[in-house]
């Protein structure tokens, strides 16, 4: 009996459990669906808000565009220019561009010039100089330092002034020139010239020239102070010659002895003549002056009357016609 009662009870219990579980499961599924529905509604609200915002933006953009267009129209109206004048300027620029293009085409169509012709067509640059400072190295062999300054007056004429300072002895560069001099003085007692041995020859002087550049007026020729020139000149020098001579002097009564007696002479030299020269530029900075000509020299000693006579032309106290030649090197300015 107990067994038969227990089986139905077990069955009923299982059935109750199934019913209760199904009810609880149904309740859970309903709650989940309600939550999902709420989330979807929230998303829908968000989309509606976004749509509303976009609509407002679309409504605001045309207004902003209108404002900007109004500003642009205002600025264009404020611009002050003449359209006709602007069109005229554009037409001028266009015509200039067309002219340049036609010139380029003509240049390209012309035959190419030879390299020599191009070089020949380029004009040579000739700088203009106003003065020149020159040194005569030939006179250094005489023991004379000669420095000259030339100043142009115009394209054809210039003035050249030279200063000379002399100190010549048997030593140094002037040895050959000095040792070949024949020194003599006029003895008023014997009315004859007495020779003596020179020691020192010193002094100074100047030389002035008025130069005429002969080819300055020819086209393509160089102007002063460059080129071929002819110049009259005048020179003056004052020289002091010191030496000694030996003569018999009575040192004691009845006793004669050869002694050295100092001789001092002052010589004035006047010279005038004409020179012809050529001044050549070197490296556009230096100049080489080569000249030659002739002078009439007149020399006199201060303690003698008249000009010297019968002197060798190589002598410093020579009077007569003498040749002139030299080379000078200097700077162009």
Q: State the domain count.
A: 2
Largest sheet: 8 strands, antiparallel, barrel
Q: Tell me, rounded to a whole number, the average pLDDT.
A: 81
Name of the top-level CATH class of the largest domain: Mainly Beta
Helix content: 25-40%
Shape: elongated
Q: Spatial order of the strands in the main sheet?
A: 1-2-3-6-7-8-9-10
- Based on the structure, what is the oligomeric state of the protein chains? single chain
Low-confidence stretches: none
- What is the number of helices? 4
| Element-level helix/strand string | HHHEEEHEEEEEEE
Q: How much β-strand is present in the residues?
A: 35-45%
Tell me the structural class. Answer: alpha+beta
Q: Compute the number of strand runs.
A: 10
CATH architecture of the largest domain: Beta Barrel
CATH topology of the largest domain: Porin
Q: Cα-atom Rg, whole angstroms?
A: 60 Å
Q: What is the first-to-last residue Cα distance?
A: 156 Å
């Amino acid at each position: 009996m107990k067994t038969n009662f227990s089986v139905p009870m077990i069955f009923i219990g299982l059935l109750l459990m199934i019913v209760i579980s199904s009810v609880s499961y149904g309740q859970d599924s309903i709650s989940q669906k309600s939550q999902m529905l709420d989330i979807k509604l929230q998303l829908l609200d968000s989309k509606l808000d976004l749509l509303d915002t976009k609509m407002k933006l679309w409504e605001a953009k045309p207004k902003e565009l209108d404002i900007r267009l109004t500003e642009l129209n205002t600025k264009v109206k404020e611009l002050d220019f003449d359209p006709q004048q602007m069109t005229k300027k554009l037409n001028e620029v266009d015509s200039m561009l067309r002219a340049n293009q036609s010139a380029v085409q003509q240049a390209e169509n012309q035959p190419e010039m030879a390299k020599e012709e191009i070089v020949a067509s380029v004009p040579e640059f000739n700088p203009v100089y106003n003065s020149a400072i020159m040194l005569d190295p030939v006179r250094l062999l005489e023991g004379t330092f000669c420095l000259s300054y030339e100043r142009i007056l115009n394209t054809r004429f210039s003035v050249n002034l030279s200063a000379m300072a002399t100190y010549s002895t048997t030593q140094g560069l002037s040895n050959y020139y000095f040792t070949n001099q024949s020194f003599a003085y006029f003895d008023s007692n014997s009315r004859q010239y007495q020779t003596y041995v020179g020691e020192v020859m010193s002094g100074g002087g100047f030389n002035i020239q008025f130069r005429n550049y002969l080819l300055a007026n020819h086209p393509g020729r160089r102007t002063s102070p460059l080129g071929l020139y002819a110049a009259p000149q005048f020179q003056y020098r004052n020289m002091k010659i010191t030496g000694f001579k030996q003569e018999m002097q009575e040192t004691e009564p009845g006793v004669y002895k050869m002694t050295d007696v100092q001789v001092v002479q002052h010589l004035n030299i006047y010279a005038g003549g004409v020179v012809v020269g050529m001044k050549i530029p070197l490296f556009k900075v230096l100049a080489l002056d080569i000249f030659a000509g002739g002078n009439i020299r007149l020399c006199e000693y201060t303690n003698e009357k008249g000009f010297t006579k019968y002197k060798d032309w190589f002598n410093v106290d020579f009077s007569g016609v003498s040749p002139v030649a030299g080379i000078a090197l200097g700077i162009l300015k």
